[in-house]
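Residues pack. Consider this:
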Amino acid sequence: MQIVLISGLSGSGKSVALKALEDAGYYAVDNLPANLLAKLVAELRRAGYVRIAVAVDVRSGANIAALPQKVDDLRKTVGDLRVIFLDARDDTLIARFSETRRRHPLATDDVSLAEAIQKERDALESIAEVGHHIDTSDLQANTLRAWIKDFMGISATEGLTLMFQSFGFKYGIPLDADLVFDVRCLPNPHYDARLRPHTGRDQPVIEFLESQPEVARMCEDIRSFVANWLPSYARDNRSYLTVAIGCTGGQHRSVYIAEWLGRQFADSVRVLVRHRSAARRVFDHGAGAAGK
């Protein structure tokens, strides 16, 4: 079991860090009281979870002082426990609270924001000493996400789903497409009466398209483009990247290429393959039959 404990100053980016780990597949819990940490870990262990990220901070109240001891106790039973402590300069924290108009958890009518930040520093001093310290003063949110993933050894594409979606141009370009490739220039099985009823997933169409050198060249060009740029899209902390492949009707060429591309990336990233227009064709056919 691996546990990542996130703590730090309010406004330092704990929510950003926790979300980055959740997107990478960790079971994430925010604002956990420190005295419930051991109970949470025990329950999630019984439930079969192996990667857990927990945010514990000054919102725990007085029992936050017990967190270092709780961490020491957990290390005896957990194989991999890491503590990340996020910090920032006082002027940066004050500016962030001013921009978001959020109230500091320790601020009251009698305690100013600056005084609340100092009280929080004092309360978290012992925790700061046992954690991996990250100063977020000059970091953008995307940079912090990348640093958290680097620290945890999470690959750039972990947490990202790559979807290949075939479609027919005559039905319009999918609104959710991030990248669109037009393959209408390739030989069209539609003009062969024997192939017309089939789709790009059927063996007769597959054999026809695989016999065309330009189809192989197009497939490789798209594969190479996506492979080269996928790490950059992943560093942008996307959850999905949708690659749309379009032919005239979305039945033959685009379906074949989307399926082919899905197989090429299946071992390196989470992949989904969807056939937008082919599904529409089946639906329309079924609706027509039902109406007879």
